[in-house]
Amino acid sequence: MTDSSQDALPNVLYRSAQWLRQVFPDGVPEQQYLALLAVLAPEFSDRQLALLVAHLTGRDDAAMLNDVYRVQATPAVELDLEPVRQHLNVHGFPDALDADGSRSR
Question: DSSP letters of 70-84?
Answer without folding.
Answer: HHHTS-GGGT-HHHH
